[in-house]
Amino acid sequence: MLMEQLADYAIREQASKLPPQVIHHAKRAVIDWYAALLPGSVVNPAVLMEEAFAEDLDRGRARLATGRLATLRAAAMINGAASHSVEFDDIYRDAGYHPGSPTISAALAAAQASGASGERFLRGVIVGYEISTRIGEAVMPSHYKYWHTTGTVGAFGAAAAAATILGANKEQFMHAMATVGSFASGLQQAFRSQAMTKPLHGGHAADAGCLAAMAAMKGLTGALDMLEGEVGFGNAMSVNPDWSKATKGLGVDYHINHMTFKNHGCCGHTFPSIDGALHLQKEQGFNHKDVKHIRLHTYKAGLNIIDNNNPEGEYQAKFSIQYTVAHALVRGSVRLNAFDPDHLSDPDVRALLKKIEPIADPEISKGYPGRRESRVEIELNDGRKFEHFQPYRKGDPELPLTDEELNDKFIELAEPVIGKTAAASLLKQLWDTEKLASVDYDTGAGAKRALKEVLLGGTAG
């Protein structure tokens, strides 16, 4: 039975001798998660979720990014949504999946609520990543036609992480995973408007995983063939799932070593085109006003989500290949400020995006999801034409962010929220995670609350 094989691995990993590089990459994942969590915690939907979950806050042993006490499930839900809000969270490419948001949110809440050590916390993160990324591979690419993997597959990552940290035995682990399969959800229609729903997919998956694990620890049972059953997760939400991928290399080839850490603050499907366009601009030295026309040849599955030549607000702009490439060429990058009102209305960006033609390239599309490629063609007003093929994204395993670059990303995103001193202190704590007796990280809550008031002007804006 598939569920039994997954549980056997998880139980072994509770006490295994983990390779040093796996521990290192797990810490990188946690650092990257915090980098996305902190700025996401001071904007909607996280701010609204704090209001909605008021009865579950200021009690319990888990904590929000603000340092505010919360029950296990409330912390998982709110931190899960916050860490998926600013579009800077990690990616497991072959599953089209952001594992950090649901998995680490659930793991941290479970670890804080149970008083687990830093080492146990990391083991939970690793188990959640290894199992959920493989479930994601098994149901891709057909799953991605309607479903958002971070909400669906993420529920399994969260359940696996929480059950590991809470000390589940084999039977309890299997039932936690079986139950959470019924909760897995998240529809892609949420991507296609200014709605706040998409970040909640990460939060819901984290919460659902914790709920399933907590209930299984008390004896609640689930359908153990939930993954491969006749009307189970795979058959209901994909076409011809390949369940051999769910256990291939499990405990040997660690997927957490092969993560993509984002180098731009927007949808990852835009990245190869952004990188390719910036490469040509740097190589050829042209100005954005020199551009006559741009063609972006990329993969259809991504283009179905990011083809929008008239984004109406911040959220749509993050999912517009035209806007993000135009912004990169005009402003030099696509960081958080790319979606501030003055940037969104920049006449140079708006003029350039109208000159961008995205094309679903049949050959490039064949490589999805394992390859994320773009061929960028730029024609200038003086008739010169340039072309560049971008086979990877900066941040992919083939072009990874170094530890130093990851540190820089963390400081860039954390400092405006918690201040320079607190950001440096938190980063050191995160690199020392496996040595910690508990993971009640100090995020400089006082400084953050003060900044929150400044940023929000006393509102939930």
Descriptors:
2-methylcitrate dehydratase PrpD; globular; 60s Ribosomal Protein L30, Chain: A; 6 strands; disordered C terminus; 2 domains; 4-stranded mixed beta sheet; two-stranded antiparallel ribbon; alpha+beta
Topology:
Layout: H1 2-13, H2 20-40, H3 46-52, E1 57-63, E2 69-70, H4 72-82, H5 100-114, H6 118-139, H7 149-165, H8 170-180, H9 197-217, H10 233-237, H11 271-284, E3 291-298, H12 300-306, H13 314-318, H14 321-331, H15 341-344, H16 347-353, E4 356-360, H17 362-366, E5 374-380, E6 385-390, H18 403-418, H19 420-431, H20 445-456
Parallel strand pairs: 3-4
Antiparallel strand pairs: 1-2, 3-5, 5-6
Helix pairs in contact: 1-8, 2-4, 2-6, 2-18, 4-5, 4-9, 5-6, 5-7, 5-9, 6-7, 7-8, 7-9, 8-9, 11-14, 14-16, 18-19
Report on this model:
By secondary structure, the chain is of the alpha+beta class. It has 2 domains: 2-258, 2-methylcitrate dehydratase PrpD (Orthogonal Bundle), CATH 1.10.4100; 268-390, 2-Layer Sandwich (60s Ribosomal Protein L30, Chain: A). The chain has helices spanning 2-13, 20-40, 46-52, 72-82, 100-114, 118-139, 149-165, 170-180, 197-217, 233-237, 271-284, 300-306, 314-318, 321-331, 341-344, 347-353, 362-366, 403-418, 420-431, 445-456; strands at residues 57-63, 69-70, 291-298, 356-360, 374-380, 385-390. It has a 4-stranded mixed beta sheet with strand order 4-3-5-6. It has a two-stranded antiparallel sheet with strand order 1-2. Strand 1 and strand 2 (69-70) form a beta hairpin.
Label the overall shape.
Answer: globular
Uncertain segments: 450-461
Classified in CATH, the superfamily of the largest domain is 2-methylcitrate dehydratase PrpD
Biggest sheet features: 4 strands, mixed
CATH class of the largest domain: Mainly Alpha
Number of helices: 20
What's the domain count?
Answer: 2
Strand content: 5-15%
The beta-strand count equals 6
Rg calculated over all Cα atoms? 21 Å
Helix/strand/pairing category: alpha+beta
N-to-C CA distance? 49 Å
Mean pLDDT: 95
Helix content: 40-55%
